[in-house]
Each structure stands twice: as structure tokens, then as C-alpha cells.
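thread: overnight batch results

M.L. [08:02]
morning all. the overnight job finished for the chain we discussed friday. pasting input first so we're all looking at the same thing
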Amino acid sequence: MLHIKNGRVIDPLTKTDEMQDLLIEDGHILMVDGPDSVQAYLRAHGLLEKTKSLDARGMVVAPGLTDVHVHFRDPGFAHKEDIHTGAKAALAGGVTRVVLMANTRPVVDNEETLSYILQKGKETGLHVETCASVSMGLQGKELVDMAALKSKGAAGFTDDGIPLLDKDFARKAMEEAARLSMPISFHEEDPAYISENGINAGAASDHFNIKGSSRMAEISMIERDIALAKETGAEIDIQHISTKEGVELVRQARKTCSNIHAEATPHHFSLTEDAAIHYGTLAKMNPPLRTEEDRLAIIEGLKDGTIEIIATDHAPHSAEEKQKGITEAPSGIIGLETALPLAITYLVRPGHMSLLEVLTKMTLGPCALYQQLEPDSVSVGKPANLVLFHPDQDFVYEYSLSKSQNSPFLGQTLYGKVYATLTDGKVRYRNEKVTKER
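M.L. [08:03]
and the structure it wrote out:
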């Protein structure tokens, strides 16, 4: 049995925000109550000497985070990341459940690859789900057998990294996803508006003397897919939204269509294209970092409920790859360990959102899209999937547990260091410097 004491419990599902102790037994939460009541229970059952304790003084105890946009690169690109190292990074960030993307090698367009990922995920202590691709080989031409892949455990469908350019094919995919009551997620970038990807067409592209990626690449695709979602009734996710126009399109659509969802990454609400100028390829991603006006629009979208989900798009790349030129280096950054700290640093501390609101975007919001995923909660009877963190303590983000280190946030001072992460009642990650288990 484990006693988590002296913590501030914040639970989006129950809207709890109060000082409470927890008792955990056999992987589940046995008791959530005041410290005197918990002590009395342990004493009455002769368990005081047999129970381990974890002191959460000054910390928040919350449901573990769910990240629905993650690349673990396994199979096929294990030099960047594998499922085990990706799981370590996730747990260090307080993430207890991930939904992986399908652009591995081979692509997750078949039952064998799907089963490989799910089975390997079970070895990690992290709850690993994965999407299957929408199209065979990510070619945007032939629809995968969605029904078969659903039956084998696919959480949803996406060709993330590659947009579905054929409108009729996208409609067909949405119709089948709707028939199966499965979510389908879209990477919204039309290459017709992109000269060089990963860099905003504006101050950043001017700095590098390239044309870059126009905001219309995103806007045009979001317009199309919102219209198709209204037509088909499919549950869709607009991934990693980056433009103020895109946020407004989703805002207006959600007034009448609850089946349209959107996600924002921590880097898009924390940084602008100035970071690309300063950090180069370490701040190159698809879609690119844009303007301060876009960043503030994304924050407003998070505040008013237009954007329900904070998701990292954790995208590991090797140092050798990122050291190539601005047009040759791959796009993407890692983000699992910094998602919560960035949300606290750039959303909570400036007063844009409360901790409860931020945690909602990282727990309940993902489950609103992936409705087959049961939300975690700090409640009696629920699995003990938990994160403990100190929202007011600063730290320097020095090194990632990922195989890759491609982040513009390395070396920066952030707030909200994760101290411990539990899944199924077991401490899977603990910062030895700041937690004491006895």
C-alpha cells in the first residue's frame, strides 16, 4: 500500500481542488480524504508500519496526462527514438498515456505492425495506444481496412505528417471513420502553398532568404475538412493548429458541430517565428511557428474552449539530421517532458488559464476526441495513474530522457517540474532530488 500525503489534489473530472491524502492499493485508489481520516484508517487496520509513503508537500497531485499526438519512431527509426526510450521521456513529463502516430516504417496500415507497437508498449509501464494510418503506405490513395484495424486495437486513424490532398478520398475516409465511430486526425498543410516547409513565410523566411510556408497552407485545408466533417458527421481532429484564421474557423464550426476538435502544441502557444531565427533547425517544425498574433490567438482558443486539447507532437530527430541546413533538416521537436512546464510557464503564470483549466486540456480534452479512452481521475476505485508536480518551482531543462535532444527549450528556465509519475499504482518515474519515499 502507498500513502501519498500532504498534496493538493486537482482533478478535472470531479472539479476537485483541495488538500487531500491518497491511499493506493493493488494499482487502484483506495481512499481520498483528509490526512486525519487516512491516518485513522491505517491505524484501525494495523497498516501504519506496513504502508510506504510519498510526501507531496507543496505539490499538486493530478490525474496522469494523456498526449494524443506522439511519435516514438518505432519500428523503423529507432536511432531517433524507440518505444522504451519514448516511454521514459513521457513518464518524466507526467504523461501516463500516449496515442502514437502511424508514420513508422513499416507504416501502421496492417495488423502485424499495429500489434507489434501495442505489445511493445505493454512492456514499458506507460499506457501506449496507437493510431493506424488512413491510407495504405501514407500514399493517400487506398483506404486501409479501418474495421479490421479497429478490431485489433487501433485508437483512431491519421496520416499525420502528410495531408490528405484528394478531397474525395478524404470524404471517403471520414465516412468510414464515422460509420465505425472512430476519430480521424488531419495534418492540415497544403504543399501548393509551401516552398520550403517548417519555416513561416514572413520574418523567418526573409531571415533565411527562402519563401517558406504560407499560412494559407493550413487555412485552406482546415476550411475543406470542416466542411467535410459537417457533411459526413465524422469525429475529426485538426492537429497542431498554428494560425489565427485556423482557430477562428474551428471556433465558428464548433458552435454547431461538436464533432470538430482541435489541438495546440506547447511550442505553438509558447514561441513565435523569432525562435526559428534564433534557434534555427531546433525550432523548425510543421506547421511552422508563426507570429505573436497567431500565438495569442491560440491561447485565446484554449481559453474559450475552441481548442480542447494540448498535445506535444513529440517528434525526435538525431543531432546529425538537425545539424543540416535550414531547408534540408527535418521538421519537428521533442516535447513530452516540457508540455506541462510550458503550459504552466506560458499559460498559468501569466494568468491566461488556471491549473485546473490547463490540466483539463491534457486529460479530459483528449478523451473527448478518443471517446473509447476512459478519463483518469483522483477518485476512489480509479486506476492510480497520477502525476505529482510543484507548479511554482523553477528548474533548468538540461537534458531529455529521449534518445534525441532536438528542442529549443533546452537550457531554459521553466516552472512546474514533475516530481513523480505513477501508472497502475507503481512509481514509474521519480526525481530523486526532490521526492522522498519512505
